[in-house]
Structures are given as structure tokens and as C-alpha cells.
Amino acid sequence: MKYDVIVVGGGIIGVMCAYELVKSGQKVLLLERGKIAQGTTANSFAWANATSKTTDQAYHDLNAAGLEGYHALLAEFGAEALGIKSGGSLQIAEPADAAGLQSLRDQAAALAAFGHAARWIETSELRALEPNLAFPADAQALFAADDLCIDAPRFTRFISDRIRQHGGEIRENCAALALQADDEGVVTGLTCDQGDLTAANVLVTSGPDINASLAKLTGYDGFHSGFPMGRVPGLLLTTPAVAPGLLGRLVYGASSNEVHILPESGGGIKIGADDMDGMVIEDQSKENLKRVGQLLLQRAAKLLPALGTVDIDSCTLGIGTRAYPTDGKTIAGQMPAAKGFYLVATHSGITLAPAIAPLMAALIVTQQMPNPLSPFGLERFPGFA
Ligand SMILES: Cc1cc2nc3c(=O)[nH]c(=O)nc-3n(C[C@H](O)[C@H](O)[C@H](O)COP(=O)(O)OP(=O)(O)OC[C@H]3O[C@@H](n4cnc5c(N)ncnc54)[C@H](O)[C@@H]3O)c2cc1C
Question: Are 351 and 48 in contact (CB under 8 A)?
Fold first, then answer.
């Protein structure tokens, strides 16, 4: 059996890429060393948005294309099947924190300049949208009505079922071990722990393990330290199911109470706080996790007081590891000077998967780099040009 493409990694990125490739008529095999959607995809806040991407237009546009991709999938398959919750996002600011307010206003101005739909709202509209939240009487907010909350494991498993329906093959509990190439360096297949496989192209989407995967697959140890990707852990807490309608959408609290919350598809509230991620890196003991989890819950209860009665022991705590490129932006494209060898490694992969996947499929099928992906090649980093 000769495959057109073997995809390594069954997270949201690999699964979406495999889906677009089978839809393009490619003979595709996806390998996952464990189960589909059990890596970072299973431990993500999973806010699909371009609202937080204001550094440059190309990266903003890629994220906006991801969000558009979700809306197209919603129209095709429906929210229930995909595990997607609409309602948008709110980022709250309070005038007492002049710097925080200005920073959010700058974000709103940048989004307006990019042509992105997000609008400034005053306290009365904020209160009407989220009557159960507690915030200062003069709070204001940035409202992005199109943003979505994704149940990423459910979404990814749904798409993997579509891959099989389109004739693609998925092997779980099957790890990729070594790339095979001819004397010219052209990919001919790979060795997995079930034997040798023949393929014209290999696409690696192994998430935060990309450095180690590339080193192992190519036999070149330099990828461990030389690949421009870091690993950044993050803690998330999910409460048991709460009263329906308690929270309508994703909310970022004002800077005086750094916390973000969203209604997740099982009926609970998912909670994270960027500044608390560091507290779980060094000590991941059960006691420390519970302690940090309790702090997260307290912050969330300041924003959504009904959470004040939730018992920490009834909550689920999860640590996810972000793959974080050293310049913060996606790496996607062909491995320079290695024909048939491709990779994607990115943060914000939940948002980006529906944008990156069709572009990677187009690159592999046509051998032409699609314009929206051209700023994100590995060639931009020293040593890979
Ligand atoms: C705390 C936290 C919050 C986040 N919040 C958001 C957010 O709000 N919005 C957003 O867009 N993104 C967010 N992200 C980022 C997002 O979750 C990730 O970018 C995305 O899940 C990455 O998906 P992936 O498919 O690249 O990696 P993964 O989901 O990790 O999948 C990679 C897969 O490859 C497999 N694999 C590795 N090596 C091999 C091998 N040799 N052979 C076979 N299989 C292999 C692994 O088992 C794994 O299943 C967040 C991440 C974290 C940690």
C-alpha cells in the first residue's frame, strides 16, 4: 500500500489536515501514538477567536480564517454534532484601571483597523448580556459576537469519523519512529511501531512534542534544542454542571481580577488565568494543583458569584502544554530542503486548525505555497533558511 500522505499526530491540527487531504482526493493515513485528541487538544481553553491577535495583519487574518472555517462547519454539520457553543466573547475593563482600559481600547482600535467585527459596549449592555456576572458599576467591555467556544476533543473525534467516511485510514496506538528518504533526501515513507509504510509525503503535527519527534524521525539530535519551539504549561479547572444559562459566553475578567471563564459543552464552567500557569510548572503535586485550583475558583467566583458554592473536590483540574514558537506565531510548511516532508507546529491551534488545514492540503497537493501561509514557513528562523 502506498499512501499519498502520512500525517503524524491525532490532535486537532493533524486531524483537520488529514480531513482536508482526504477531501482533496489524497490517500491518507493518520498515525496517533495514543488515542485521538488526548494531547494538548484535550487540555485547552479552546476559545476560537482572532480578537486576541492584534500584533500583525497576516497572523490576525490566519486566525480570522480559522474562525470563518468554524462558522462554515457549523452551517454544514450543526453545533451539537461538532461540540461548538456560539455567543461570542466579552473582555471586561474598568475605568479605575486606566492602563487596562487603554490597553483594551488599543486592542479594539487594532481590530477595527484589521476590519474585524468586535464592538465596544457600555455597562447596561454588558449587564443585559450577562446578568449573573459581578463587575464594577462603570465597567465596559469589548464584545466579539462571532467568537466561539469549542469542545475540542468532541470536535476532533467528529472530524476523525468524517475522515474514515471519506476513505481515510486512522491508526491509534501507533507511533511514528523514523522517516525514510532516498539518497536525494526525498521522502519515501516512514517506520512506525507496526512496521514500514510507503508514502510520497509525511506531515508531522505532533504538538508540543515536535522538537523530540523531529529529532527521532530524522535521527538529528539538533532538533531537540535547535527547533524554535518552547513548551508552556497551563492549568485549567472545570466545574461540575451549573444552572443552565448561568453564563452565556466566554468572559475575560477585568485586570484587577485576572481570570477567564466559559460555559463548556458538558454544562460546567471552564476556568483559566494566564498569570497562574507558572504556579504549576515546578510543582505539579496533587496538593499544589488543588491549592492553585482553589485560587482559580475563588477568582472565578468574584466574577460569577454563583460559583462561590462549588467544592474544589468536585472540579476537574487539567494541565495542558502549549507548543509555543519562539516568535509566538505558527510554523507551517515544508521542511526546508526535504522534499515530501512537512510540518505544522503552533499555539492557538484550536482557532487555527480550520484555516491551516486547507492551506497545508493545497501546499502538499499543488507544491505551491498558498499566500496566507507564506509568512509562517520555518525558513524565517536562523539556521533554516
Ligand atoms: C492551557 C491552554 C489553553 C489554551 N487555550 C487556547 C485557546 O483558548 N484557543 C486556541 O486556539 N488555542 C488554545 N490553546 C492551544 C491549543 O490547545 C493547541 O495549539 C492545540 O490543541 C494543538 O493541537 P495539536 O494537534 O498541534 O497538538 P496535540 O493536541 O498535542 O496533538 C499532537 C498529537 O501528536 C501525537 N504524537 C506525538 N508524537 C507522535 C508520534 N511519534 N507518533 C504518533 N503520534 C504522535 C500526540 O500523542 C498528540 O495526540 C491552549 C493550550 C493550552 C495548553
Answer: yes
Residues ≥6 apart with Cβ < 8 Å to 109: none
* Distance, CA of 288 to CA of 265 (rounded, Å): 27
* CA-nearest residue, atom 13 of ligand 1: 348
pLDDT in tens, 185-204: 999 999 999 999 999 999 99
Beta bridge partners of 323: 231
C-alpha 112 – ligand 1 centre gap (Å) = 30
16 assigned to some structural domain: yes
Q: Are residues 168 and 301 located together in one domain of the fold?
A: no
Tens-place pLDDT, residues 108-162: 999 999 999 899 999 999 999 999 999 999 999 999 999 999 999 999 999 999 9
Please indicate, yes or no, if residue 338 is contained in any of the structural domains: yes
Q: Please tell me the pTM assigned to this model.
A: 0.97
Say whether both 141 and 235 belong to one domain: yes
CATH number of the domain encompassing residue 178: 3.50.50.60
- Give the distance (Å) from ligand 1 centre to CA of residue 24: 24
Residues with CB under 6 A from ligand 1: 8-14, 31-34, 38-41, 43-47, 175-176, 205-209, 213, 234, 236, 320-322, 346-351
Which of 41, 223, 376 to mutate to test ligand 1, by most ligand atoms within 8 A of the CB atom? 41
267 and 182 in a common domain:
no
**Structural domain harbouring 363:** 2-43+153-228+326-380
CA dihedral 224, 37, 343, 364 (to 10 degrees): 160
CA of 347 to the centre of ligand 1 (A): 8
| pLDDT value of position 222 | 93
**pLDDT tens sequence across 24-80:** 999 999 999 999 999 999 999 999 999 999 999 999 999 999 999 999 999 999 999
Each residue's pLDDT tens digit, 259-268:
999 999 889 9
Long-range contacts of 99-103 (CB under 8 A, 24+ apart): 99/255, 100/254, 100/255, 100/256, 101/140, 103/255
